[in-house]
Amino acid sequence: MRVSLAPLVLLVLLAASCVDLPAAPNARQDVTNNGVVTNNGVVTNNDAVTNNGGGQDEDGDGVGSPMDNCPTVSNAGQEDTDRDGDGDACDSDDDNDLIPDIVDNCPKVPNLQQTDVDEDQIGDACDASVDEDQDHDGVLDALDNCPLVANPSQLNADEDGQGDACDADDDNDGVTDADDNCPLVANPDQANRDVYRAAGNRIPYTPRPMPGDTTILIGNGYQGPVPLNFTFTYFGTAYTEIYVSSDGFVTFDDPARMDPGPPQQIPDVAFPNNLLGVWDDMEGSLDKPIQMGSRLGPNGWEYVIAFNDINRPGEGLSNTFQIVLTEGNAFELHIGDSLRARGLTVGLEAPGGTYALAVPGLNQADTTLHEVAFRFITDAPGPDVAGDACDLCPDVALVERDADADSDGVGDACDACPQLANADQLDVDLDRVGDACDSCVSSPPFTPPFEAVVMPTTYAPPPSPSDAVQMWTPDNAVSTSLPVPIGFPFTFFGTPYTELNIGSNGVVYFGGDRSSVRCCARRPLGAPTAPFGVVAALWSDRSGVEPVLYETVGVAPHRAFVVHYDYLSADAAPVRNRFRVVLLEGSGELEVHTESMSGTAVQGVRAPLGSTIASLDSRGLSVQDLAEDAVRIFTSADPAALDSDNDGVADLCDE
Question: Would you say residue 3 has pLDDT above 70?
Fold first, then answer.
């Protein structure tokens, strides 16, 4: 057979003439120092060549320029994704999808449509998360705003791209959700006015005699800390010492933080806070010092601070009044004469300055007062933890604040027309009944009432009745035909009563026939069908027809009217419900002492025209299973209820 030697001769001639054959794209060309050709490689001139190349290495990457797929750009790895002979380091389109790498969201994977469903700047063709659902919530990770925390709703209150379920600060206000009183509404100040509760009412003017041992305050400044020989509780905090300002108020804060200046309207978060009194611009003098000291009063220890004819600088005017702190959590303000040209503030302000209760018309007011007195009582911070920014009733400390029957954005607990949408809450006569639903819009306006307060107290029930009257009450009945005499005037929401009606299901009524509400079915006190003018001691259904006992005990002026309930519970028979309702003479306060209660009941008070409702925590909605429990209830004037002739028409609208 004849064999052609032409290819071999050509190869030898090329090698001898030092001519390099061009290499095929991506072809491996291995040579050794002896110029031996291996694996289809070519060597020239028998020169020593190393590291996969020959001749020059312009980019210094160890690959000779003739063999380098990027001869002028260092790329020792020689990566060439699309195998087009141009290395990735110098290829402007690594995946040959006609989209330059500089704008390609998948530069090494063809992705001609540039789809990117999760908008993370990584194209779907090269995004590993596109088809995953790591938290198994039915939302693919590519679209999931919490890919590792199940949140099928994808809620995102602050619209920051991170779902609420995995966002430590859902409203982006700088307060983490765990500490935020409005986690879904931005409120960096965390204001919460209704966490505090207080009440006040007008009382007879009875200034105290000054104790023999007194401390005096001269000039314009502070005295303190002044020790008390008893514990005074202010908004749930117990104090044994106070600071007294020459400007007519008592505070429990360090006076070094204060520079009050002229009286302010309250509340005011600026200093001073945590105060009570008759705030004016005054200073004591050697001949007219401010005096203070302890004395034993008729109901326990008192601390009296007396401002007797204390001057207001540069005006030739003076003020005479007393601040009387009583053992417990109440204080009194007895004002003899007070003339203020620039504004007088009478009342109290809570810690932090977000809540205050001023006497109506006396909040930085120009006024003249003569022999008037007021009593205030405070309660510990309540359960309404929602901040003002997200609270439908930011001034009402009730857990039922979120109920909004008419969907007008105002909670039922503070809505002037809870069953009729009235977002503007217009109330011309200030009677707490909105104009939209008020059948008696009067002028001039009412004076806004104080609040009612319900707070826990020590369980100390009165003894079993010794000479009580048995009132035989059939099931679900009210003593409407025969009102029960109290034995002394008792003031309920500003109106004195000498008799009341007793319901068989743990309810006491003021103000006449309540036959329309005698039914057994308890309701939340704020419900439209709930009775008005009521003390719901423990409103629940009973089983049986046991008599209710009542009696008046004690000696004037410290008598008490006691209603004794002892019956089988219809909710949890054969357990007995045993509790006492105690009305206290003189103070307008009442107590409910519960020995035992099983099942569900409602507890609290509602004013005669329903404009004020108060309960301890959520007991106005329901309470369950009590034992050795007691609450104290304090009410004050409710002008909307004033009806002197008892004809059902408020005085200011009555012709």
Answer: no
Do 342 and 401 fall into the same domain?
no
Q: What is the pLDDT of residue 281?
A: 78
pLDDT digits (tens, 9 = 90+) for 347-385: 999 887 878 888 877 888 777 788 888 889 887 776 677
Residues 365 and 402 in one domain: no
The C-alpha atoms of residue 220 and residue 280 are separated, in whole angstroms, by: 11
Contact 248, 279 (CB under 8 A): yes
Average pLDDT, the chain: 77
Residue 578 has pLDDT above 70, yes or no: yes
Question: Going by C-beta distance under 8 Å and a sequence separation of 6 or more, which residues neighbour residue 56?
Answer: 64, 65
- Supply the Cα-derived Rg of the chain in whole angstroms: 42
Looking at the predicted structure, is the pLDDT value of residue 311 above 70? yes
Contact indicator for 363, 283 with CB cutoff of 8 Å: no
- Cα–Cα distance for residue pair 181/355, rounded to 1 Å: 16
Pull the structure tokens for residue 287: 């001949």
Last residue of a domain, one of 91, 110, 136: 91
Strand, helix or coil for residue 568: strand
The reply to whether 534 and 586 lie within a common domain is yes
In-domain check, residue 126: no
- Based on the fold, state whether residues 521 and 562 are members of the same structural domain: yes
Work out whether strand 534-539 and strand 507-509 pair parallel, antiparallel, or are unpaired. antiparallel
Quick one: CA dihedral 500, 503, 506, 512, positive or negative? Answer: negative
Q: Distance between CA atoms of 557 and 545, rounded to whole angstroms?
A: 35
The verdict on 397 and 362 lying in the same domain is no
Instruction: Note down the domain range covering 418.
Output: 392-439
Considering the domain architecture, whether residues 331 and 271 belong to the same structural domain is answered as yes
Residue 186 lies in a domain: no
Q: Which of 343, 339, 305 is nearest to 324 (CA)?
A: 305
Phi, psi (degrees; rounded to nearest 5) at 399: -75, -15
Amino acid code (one letter) for 307: F
Q: What's the pLDDT band for 476 if we cut at 50, 70, 90?
A: low
> How large is the average pLDDT for residues 154-163?
84
In a domain, residue 652? The reply is no
Q: Are 210 and 193 in contact (CB under 8 A)?
A: no
Split at pLDDT 50, 70, 90, the class of 415 is confident
How far apart are the C-alpha atoms of 79 and 83, rounded to whole Å?
9
Q: What residues form DSSP beta bridges with 591? A: 582, 632
Residue 291 lies in a domain: yes
Q: Are residues 640 and 456 in contact, defined by beta-carbon separation less than 8 angstroms?
A: no
pLDDT the model gives residue 428: 72
Sign of CA dihedral 59, 61, 62, 67: negative
Residue 544 has pLDDT above 90, yes or no: no
614 vs 332, more confident: 332
- For residues 323 and 220, membership in a common domain is answered with yes
Q: Residues for the chain: how many in total?
A: 655
Q: 312: which 2 tokens?
A: 């207001």
Residue 38 exposed, middle or buried by CB count within 10 Å (0-12, 13-18, 19+): exposed
For the chain, the first-to-last Cα distance in angstroms comes to 141
| 486 shares its domain with 425 | no
Task: Give how many domains the chain has, as a whole number.
Answer: 4
So what's the pLDDT on residue 227? 92
